[in-house]
Design a protein that fits this description.
The chain is an alpha+beta fold and 181 residues long. The chain has two domains: 119 residues, Gcn5-related N-acetyltransferase (GNAT) (Aminopeptidase, 3-Layer(aba) Sandwich), CATH 3.40.630.30; 44 residues, no CATH class. It is 29% helix and 22% strand. It has a four-stranded mixed beta sheet with strand order 1-2-3-4, sandwiched between helices. A two-stranded antiparallel sheet has the order 5-6.
């Protein structure tokens, strides 16, 4: 059901061919040992009307965690009925209840209905910020700019063999970043 909503959103955003997620990936993100994403769904008359997919963020300026709303989608037949507002308000309530600092999201600059909706609830655009992304071959190339080969996948690594853990970094007491081995 969530995959279908994600695909519907991607179609609306003119990017359906960019969707790579499948049920197993989403299940791991939502229900894995350390969930990296969370979801809320709105149900109207026993039908899923919309969803909000989000994750926790952190602001070094406020010193507080927050919520980053990755996707907010309401099926066309339920738009204008308060479903989107209810989903967004439920996240705002979590931010307030948990003592977080902010609720943030991005919107495509041509999506005027969404922009108007966000303005109507008091949200402000952060026009001075430009979002950047590293993905695909650019991400792979930059990740190993120092010439070290990538570590083998965890399930292929020999116990006790040297090599960095994939994607795992931590701040030590001296505030330097070190790869966990």
């Amino acid at each position: 059901m969530l995959i279908e909503l994600i695909e519907d959103l991607a179609t609306y955003e003119r990017a359906r061919d960019e969707v790579e997620i499948d049920e197993a990936m989403l299940a791991h993100a939502l229900f894995g040992e350390e969930p990296s994403a969370f979801a809320r769904v709105a149900i109207v008359a026993d039908v899923v009307a919309g969803m909000a997919l989000y994750y926790r963020s952190y602001s070094t300026w406020t010193g507080l965690p927050g919520i980053y709303l990755e996707d907010l989608y309401v099926r066309p037949e339920h738009r204008g009925s308060g479903v989107g507002k209810a989903l967004l308000a439920s996240l705002a309530r979590t931010v307030v209840d948990e003592g977080y600092g902010r609720l943030e999201w991005s919107v495509l600059d041509w999506n005027e209905p969404a922009i108007e909706f966000y303005r109507s609830i008091g949200a402000t655009a952060t026009d001075e910020w430009t979002r950047y992304r590293l993905a695909g071959s650019a991400l792979q190339a930059f990740a190993f700019f120092d010439g070290r080969p990538p570590a083998p996948p965890a399930d292929k690594r020999v116990a006790g063999a040297p090599g960095p853990a994939i994607g795992a970094e931590r701040a030590d007491s001296d505030d330097t970043l070190r790869r966990r081995t």
